[in-house]
Protein 1
Amino acid sequence: MDIRRSKSMMRQGVIVAMAIGVLAACNRQEPPVAAQDTETTAAADQATGDAHADPEAAPASEPAKPAGFDLESVPVSDRALGAFPFITLPDGYEAINEQTLSLARVPFWTGDRLEDVEGKAYLATIQERSGHTYSDLELERNIQHVVEQAGGVMVTDSAIAPEVLEGVSRDVRKNLVDGWGDVYNNPVQTYVIRNADKTVWLHLCSDSAGAGLIIVEARAFEPTASLLPADALKREIDTHGKVAMQVNFAVDKADILPGSMPQIEQVANLLNGDPALKLSINGHTDATGDAAHNQALSEARARSVVAALIARGIDGSRLQAQGLGQSEPVADNATEGGRAKNRRVELVRI
């Protein structure tokens, strides 16, 4: 082999070696991943997953949201509760502005919603007695102890969500003012005691100056009104000059409940059957709460009955509305049954 041919072969070998080295170096670098490569990889992964998936399996659903408060989760206590409202305040504290309502609807905060509870209700504002220093922590701990001794549980100790408070009507806020406390700036403690024959809800909202307390003994609504047909109404008015009916209204309002509308229809039938008859619609309340408030409420309820009769075609000149408040009881206001009888509407011939 001559020298020129040998040198030429050596140059070719060097070039090949350099090319191999460059290619190797390029292969060691990680090129940026293009969008197309990502989509291709995802598609491949999807295909692989589909190949192993059950073709009849339903698509995965979203995770279930945590369940809210469930009354059935509260254990049933066998401990005697005593007389309503079931608890006594700790030493050094007293209740003012107390109210006891034979039937009320109260919204209780459960931590995730307001739960409307119907039943006998006790509302009060709690303050310290003279000579005692108020402590919201002392009051809260004592109430918690009493509830736990009765076999109850705390449902929540938290602030009512602002958007929930915005949905509470002005009427509800007004009716609960003495027992609800400053729920707009302070947390609420809600407790439940479940017995075999009753469920008791307790609301406490305390601040540095006092507290609101509400206790409700929940129970199913037991109607006290019974339908008196037009002929029975006429017999009573012909004999006694008046007749009493237990028309049901919304709690502390003048709104006639739908269940009492058939009774209003019978009064309209009575008036249509005797065109000469004129009636005074007299509203009465029990003695619960302020007398002036009860007077105004009885007047408003009497006007509601008159308006309902006019809406059914009765000439308004044949009717008048009068409220007598709690001034003319027909039964003992110290008993629940007596108070129910005192909450009535009377038709009086004029």
Protein 2
Amino acid sequence: MQKSLLCLLIIVYTAVAVPISSEYSEDRTYPRFIEFPDGEGNMHTVDLEAEPDMELLAEIERNPANNQYLLYTRRNQRISQTLVINNANSITNSNFNARVPTVVIAHGWLSNQYTDINPTIRDAYLKKSDVNVIVLDWRRLALSDYATAARGVPAVGRGLGQFLAFLNRVTGQAFTEMHLVGFSLGAHLVGNAGRELNGRVARVTGGKYHGHFYIVFFFFKALDPAGPLWNYNTNRVNPRDGVYVEAIHTDGGYTVGGLGIGTNVANADFYPNGGISQPGCYTNLCNHNRAWEFFAATVTYNHLVGRQCATQTQLTWNNCRGSQLRMGNDDLRKSGSGMYRLDTGRRYPY
């Protein structure tokens, strides 16, 4: 399995369910210099206080077309078709079907269209039902240093929002039929896409938003949202980014090695196995990746069910007794709120 996803520090864990504290995780600070591997598993030192590449960030801000939108359907399950913003022919001449739901997948840092998350989630959806799957490849920014990539995420997210507005205009597909799935930095990215449309699209049928605009009916899955540089970042994913925002936390540990944000950021926040160490994992990278692996499995089986936790203590000691809510899956009419605990197995489908 390609290991080009976000990984800042490798720490050996025992495979036990360790309690998580949202308050502690929110206050967690990272050292300036952190070790992480590249796509080949070679370790490098990253400076979280490094000066971002302002020239690259300015280009990303100016030109949303830097993003690639790669369409897969049941008619082209392996060979993508490229959709281009402001090019209506690229959409009308493709296999895009406005009568079926659309799923957008946004990868994380040091990744691209070929990273395992994309074909895994793509195949789970296409085997399950007739959908449009759009893989967002934002490698131009994602392959830059972490400080630059994190700072540029909001601009990439706004570009995605503009593309989805264009897709809506060309095809007439309702925003109610669009489901955005983002992993790590990609989780914050899709949140910013929803924010872009909530600010630009007025009077879409639905409930009022802040007394002025009507909320766009996006459904979000934030898969272990990235932690470093995001704990106090106002651009991070939040419950107001869509009509239903769900987060799956798998690596939000007490130590600086935790790659996920480890605190509630959504309408419904799921903490599988306590949200820190996952059965069968011995590194932060494995724990982090479990978020999208769990999600892909739930698209196929819809089998992982959380119990709502009334207090942090219940979550900590795994004695939540609240209502049940299924984690993940492909249900576009799903709703729920609160934090949920569930336990999984060590191997697929968990």
